[in-house]
Amino acid sequence: MSGGRVGHSQRDAGLLRAVGPSGLAASIICQTVGASIFVVPATLAATIGVYAPLAFLGCGLAIGAVAICFAEGGSRIPTSGGAYGYIEEAFGPLAGYIVGTLLWVGNVLACGGVAAALGDVIASLCSPSFGLPVRAGVIIGALGAIAAINIGGVTRGARLVKASTVVKLLPLLVFIIAGAGAMHAGNFSNRSLPASDGVGHAVILALFAYTGLEVALSASGEVAEPNRTIPRALGIAMPATVALYVAIQIVAQGILGGALAHSSAPLADAMAPVSAGLRALLLAGSALSMLGMLSSDLMGSPRQLFAFGREGLLPRVLGRVHDRSHAPYVAIASYAAVAAALAVTGSFAKLAVLATLTSAAVYAAGCASAWVLARRGVALAGTPLGFPRLGTVAAFGIVGMLILISLAERVEILGLAALMTLSAVVYLIQSRVVLARG
Question: How far apart are CA 194 and CA 44, in angstroms?
Fold first, then answer.
């Protein structure tokens, strides 16, 4: 057995392993099926038209390979941090720090992208002359309010997340059931092949809709019988998510046809011919889902900045805790401010692409780490999954993620490489400073 750089028993000390397969599967679905599915169908239709369901299906296969590797890694290193724990155990603390940086940067980009989409949805209800100020006001107001609630304490933040996620899936199921009978075959007739550059961004955006499983698995230190529960939960959650996404895209295309590509609230607009009440439900559902994602993200992601600040790997001010609420208020406020700046100045599609690239790099590293841990025979929680032909699956996942990264624009790829290089340099410098301080 290989010991971790950070003792896994210490990392998970005091945690109760009480989450079972159904609970973890629900968490993965809730984290994965988020705000993006209310926006991505229009962006996919604008880039690859009626072929959009194939993008969801293809990315579903690629993310399926990643999920198998994460299940293998989670059954071997079932510790808090999820992928961070597998990768650090397999490749060392430097790789762990780089992955940690990619995770929080990717999260803040995704947070900014969803906030931008929320601003677009609300602004679409206003006169065009007021669109920009309303959009900016919604973004800053939403992120500011959620940050304030989380600064008030983790209990308040958790209540907000629960309240906003209870109704997340209901509008989507209503959309599929109500919309299935309103589709028109003629809306699938335009089958001209899309431009190659459109295909690249469409695939990246489709994968963005699947990101999130790594966040749910960060609670692996609280999973009961993790060597069985984690694989089972992923086996339930990922096929269900793929089927849901493909169905949503088909129904939206079948109802709106070419108009789908030009909608800022595609699912709500698709319900307009069916029922004004259902359109209002989907519009409210999309806003609530976006708020749910922002609430969940602002409760969890700033803690990574807080941890890095406490360890001296980022400015130590990020490690400060509020005297009364005991919340990492500087990390939360800083994270929200960065997300707001990104949202106001950027678009959903652009920020989503950048966020997906960082996730793809983490997924590739997670696939590689699962294979390395299996080769070493590392198993910290009983008999691991032991998936047959893991090397083939890991290779498929790694190649899939590398192909996806290659589909991005050159400047986006260079930006990802620069971020990884910079994080490595920062880690090496900060590690020496910490050692010097003794």
Answer: 11
